[in-house]
Amino acid sequence: YSTFPVPAGFCSDVDSFVMAFAVNTWERQTHANAPASFWFVLDTDQDGTDDYIVINRDLTFSGLDDGRNVTWSVNLGTGDAEAFFFTDHQTNSANTVLLICGEQVGLNATNFGQPLDVTAIAEDSYFGGPGDEIGGITIAPLGERFLADFAAGEIGLTVLEPGASDTMSVIDTGSDTNNTETGILLLYRGGSRANNEARAIVLAN
Question: What's the rounded Cα separation, in Å, for the pair 137 and 140?
Answer without folding.
Answer: 10
